[in-house]
Amino acid sequence: MNTQTIFQTSNPFGNAQISSRNSFYPKTRDNGDKQNSDRSKKLHNEFVQVAQDINLMKKKLMSLLLEIYKQEIYKNHGCSTIYEYGFKYARLSREVVQKALRTMKHLEDKPFLRNAIECEGIHKVAVVATIATKETDEIFAKHVRNMSKPALVELAKEIREKKKMEDMAENENMFEVENADVKENS
Fold this sequence. Notes:
Blueprint: H1 3-10, E1 16-18, E2 24-26, H2 34-71, H3 82-90, H4 94-106, H5 111-120, H6 122-129, H7 137-146, H8 149-185
Antiparallel strand pairs: 1-2
């Protein structure tokens, strides 16, 4: 008796098959049943909808957590820190709460980006939070809403590099001006 025969007779699923790598996958039955097809489509669509709802709820949750932190509501519920509150009531890790608080610090004077947290999420907003200013707040909020996270990361990287180059050029100009003043005084 070969191993394939032994496996098939002792297989609890009864309908599994052996692949070339000695692993098995249950066979799917395709009877062409329209009712079964409609049910599977409905089940799939419901699954996708719930997943989307979960993502929206997570974004709303982070927005609420930041407001709870500002008003110190967490203390009224027996928690000594916002980290404890976040974990106790939403199973949020310390790192996620910390990222939200760090990001919020940069958004104190940026209402458009603060509002973007609720619809786009803290992780996307955090990408541009440090480079946005009061003047560019609305522009960056539009970018957050319309661009993918990888595209935002690239945009932020380019802006930081450009700013770094401008700062270096400014420092060189200041150094040249100082050297010219020193030569004139000598």
